[in-house]
Amino acid sequence: MPTLKSLTEPSHPPPVALALLAAAAVAVAVGGLEHARLFHRGYAEVEIVGPLFLLNAIGSAVTILLLIARRTALFVAGSLAINVGALVSILFSHNSSFFGFSEGGYDATATIIVVAEAAAVLLTGLALVAGGAGAGAGVRGRTEVTA
């Protein structure tokens, strides 16, 4: 069972898992940037949902930094939490209401966000399957020897 310490330590996933995680990070960045852009284009005025757009953008940036810092387990958790949460929110806002906010259809920006977030979830999941993306990745991947 992984410990909190093992989840926060640097890890070295195998090359295939790392490539998938890097691709997932690009998808996370696209989703986060689009949420930031929409926040500055008027969503800041939308009660509850507007600040969530800003939090999505900030969380996406922090999540990407976790991968750069080789905290792959935390990157995986962040990527899945942000993107699954955002996809569920979009589903609610387009089919009924999300905190009183609803949208009528999918414009180009909404489509970009949905595709980016779905890609992030898929790529993160594939990285988990490829091995090395979660806790204990340093054991399955390359290990770092320190004296």
Note the run of SSEs as H and E: HHHHHH
Give the low-pLDDT segments. Answer: 135-147
Radius of gyration over C-alpha positions, nearest whole angstrom:
17 Å
Count of distinct structural domains:
1
Distance between the termini: 26 Å
Report the count of strand segments.
Answer: 0
Structural category:
mainly alpha
Helical amount: 55-70%
Main pleated sheet: none
- How confident is the prediction overall: mean pLDDT? 83
Q: Give the overall shape, derived from the CA principal axes.
A: elongated
Structural overview:
Keywords: Membrane, Transmembrane, Transmembrane helix. The protein is mostly helical and 147 residues long. It has one domain. The protein is built from 6 helices and no strands. The longest helix is centred in the N-terminal third of the chain and has 26 residues.
Summarize the structure.
With 147 residues, the chain is an all-alpha fold.
Q: What key phrases describe this protein's structure?
A:
147 residues, transmembrane, membrane, mainly alpha, transmembrane helix, 0% strand
